[in-house]
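Entry for the shared binder. Reason: the reviewer on the internal report wants the predicted structure included alongside the sequence.
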Amino acid sequence: MKNILLACSAGMSTSLLVTKMKEAAETQDIQVNIKAMSSDNAFQALDEYDVLLIGPQMRFMKKKFVKAAEEQGIEMPIETIDSVSYGRIDGDGVLKQALSLLGE
């Protein structure tokens, strides 16, 4: 099972997206654990996840997340969520983005 983390300012704006991603995964019989949380909490939880997707409004935080992962000895893909998929609350599209980053 793959663990996908979405980070945003307060963890609230991605909660609906997580619901849509879980629905898409269930429809496609894909076993994943998906969670959204604030950026502050995400820094502390990096070691529990396989991939980190950052809300488009926080793209400026990507370098900080990459540095934090390196400092913790964590190798994981870290990317900004596609802004079109994010705006459309396209759970299937964001799930595909996450799985693609994981080589799935």
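Summary line for the report: Strands lie at 2-8, 32-38, 51-54, 78-80.
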